[in-house]
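TICKET #2291
ISSUE: user wants both folds in one file
ATTACHMENT 1:
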Amino acid sequence: MSAPPLVVDLDGTLIRSDLLLEAALIFIRTQPWLIFKLLLWLLQGKAYLKAQLAHTVHIEVATLPYDPKVIHLIHSAQAQGQKIVLATASHKLYADAVAKHLGVFNQVLATEGDLNLSARKKRDQLVQNFGHAGFDYAGNSKDDLPVWQVARHAYVVNPDSGVYRKALQQGNVQALIATEHPKLKLWLKACRLHQWMKNLLIFVPLLASHRLGHTDLLLDAALGFLFFGLCASSVYLLNDLLDLADDRHHASKRHRPFASGSLSLQSGLLVFPVLLLLSFGGGYWLLPWQFVAILACYYALTLAYSMLFKRLMALDAITLAGLYTLRIIAGAIVIDGELTFWLLAFSMFMFLSLALVKRYTELRIARVQGKTVKARGRGYYPEDLEMLSSLGASSGYLAILVLALYIQDHNTMTLYQHPKIIWLACPLLLFWITRVWLLAHRGKMHDDPVIFAIKDRVSLWIGALMGVIFWAAT
């Protein structure tokens, strides 16, 4: 008598993701103006929605986050002579593609036509095919409870909350297959709290106006920093959800919590709007309405960057520079300060240079790997390296020229007692920007130069010396 087959669920079990959500997110990213179609399709039934997405959206199954422990379970079952069946609520087109890629399945059962193969419908189909207790089943969610109930052995894989306890009550759990992830650490990584350091730019207008000692203004700037950080984290979460496919092709980004499957897509879709609401709600309640307007501009521009601008040559870097400058504008609004031409010009040129460093680093890696085609999700080719370095270094030097001209401005003469001392900052910045580009050329630059500067000892010393110079000039 042959051994009963091992039936394996797909979403949340074989892969640490959900193909319906992945397809919907790809659809939104590529055709955001048609987002209403998702609702229209859903109104005609979940099976219809899955069919329309499967025929519209291509998912690269080779890069999906497969669970190695489930793959091991499949190979062990094969070694014991069990047939392997893939049974999933995902659409048949996607299930067939996964089965073809892995090459381990003897049969595929999936959503097709009007049948949404989930929960009791999956149970009935499996009983019809293999009989009561005529198969083993590996699943992960509450929808799998009725299937486990009629299976010979139940394998519970990374279960949703409360599912394992209910599965145990059925008395046929063979094994718990779980990968423990430190959730707090994963969420901190997903929200990229280290990127909040960029929001320190909000304090620049306070420093430039020499009002750092005003406690009320300092508190307002700190609130602006907090709300900008919450907004930025919301954007990062949404960006990671929309960029799953591209991130999985990137050497380091493929380890991000959503791309790797360490955090569920469902949780990301719940958390990012909460952070956004806290950001805008807090800003509207505690800070000037103009700050909320700038926050809205930042969010809209970031969304445009994520969905389109990041794939367009030159516009991507200019957008990044603009996002940095918006932080300075927000800082000026919070303290009711004046935005000077010099500050805005310096910011735009300096951050354009750093944005180009980021692109240069990505392209250099691609060239080292022998690639010649356009970088995935970008508007550049590896052969653009030399031009990018030329444009980036020039932009950095222009920022220093702006600083030099600022020293001669009449208003500067009244703001500082010894403005000529600021000239000492020019060679320091020349050294720093030159060093940054040389390190990038040698392949020693972090892919985000702002984070590099925060961690780099030389950069920190230069920043401290700059602070001393401006203090002495005051």
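ATTACHMENT 2:
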Amino acid sequence: MSKPDTWKAWEGRVVEGKYPLRQWLGGSGHSAVFLTEFAERPSQRVAIKLIRVDEGNGEPQLSQLQVTKKLSHPHLIRTFQCGVCRMDGSPFLYVVMECADDDLSQILPERPLHPSEVSDLLPPVLDALFYLHKNGFVHGRVTPSNVLAAGDQLKLSSDQVAPVAQQDAAHRRRDVYDAPETAAGIISPAGDIWSVGVTLLAALTQSVTAAEQASPTNRDLPETIPDPFRGIVRECLQLDPKRRCPLKEIQERMLPAARSVPAPPEPTPIPAGSSTRRPVFAVAAVIIVVLGIVFGLLYSRSSKSPTETADATKQPVSDAVPAPTTTAPKPAEPVAKTRTSAGEVVRQVLPDVPRSAQHTIRGTIKVVVRVQVDPSGKVTAATLKSPGSSRYFANQALKAAERWEFSAPQVDGQPTVSTWLLQFRFKRTSIQASPQREKG
């Protein structure tokens, strides 16, 4: 069996006689995360992470994990307990921790983040790193999969946090999210800065190619990255750790008043000699135009016959009707009355969106879907009338709209086809939908 299949097969087992593996939540080739129970926090969702280790090498990593239990910050995942266990005869570390709902890596395959969403995401990440660095720790693995949503908070994982060490022979570079100097075992806060730059690049572009190609002669970044993020990413991806942008400076650039590009120049003052003449000419021109319109109206009225003038005063021009002709109108032919009844919604389905995706929303994203409904009330086709500002949320709305059901409208007692417009409103804390039948 593959590793994920093996992990999932462990559901129902109990670690150390205290932590039941209730539900497999995901993992990688060397670790697995399950929903579990923790007696000291019975009302809180708690997860347990199992990390495979080499025989005899578990104690150093366990000591590192024990340190994370002392960390306390609103933007760091809490560690409650950790230890060593054996699963199928192999040694594992286990970490009992706060359970996250989702992570950034689940959103990026669908869409990049909008700059306004990154403006909400980056400050919590920076706050958590500032807390760690100030207390002598490094995170060591800032990646989209470790930027998590727990309840209404964005948080960084904490199970890889370690004390600052200038060199760690056991640590090696795994991918582009690890700073280049990690290949030599150098672990420092500057490495976290590099990781922030790559994570920003991934969030805004869904690509880390620019980071993979980083060199002293290649500092090009996609034109789609706006300021201040463009400058932040460029300075985070400096190959020399000493030249990377400090956390404090990144935080300052994220302040609303901060600018990473020069402010537009002030308008050139108008010379004193012309400052009073231009408004006069402008006012004079307006007066001339208005007088021309007034005189034109008066002239047109005076050219009408008295009868036309009297008729015009009786009703607005838009409501005026032509004079009756001498031919008598034909009597209206009888029209058969059609009995109709409007349909209504009998099943409403809201989009299934992870909390982490909702937490990236700033304001309201509106999506309108047009659905064709057959006489049985089933949706036969759904198309986007207005996709809004996010392709990801538009697709989620489209999938939900296809599952709606209706009571079909009736004409003379017979059900008939109908067309509806479904408006979905995505907000940070809620998703709403409202239907409206299209006439026709």
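RESOLUTION: both attachments delivered.
EXTRA DETAIL ON ATTACHMENT 2: The two ends are 57 Å apart (CA to CA).
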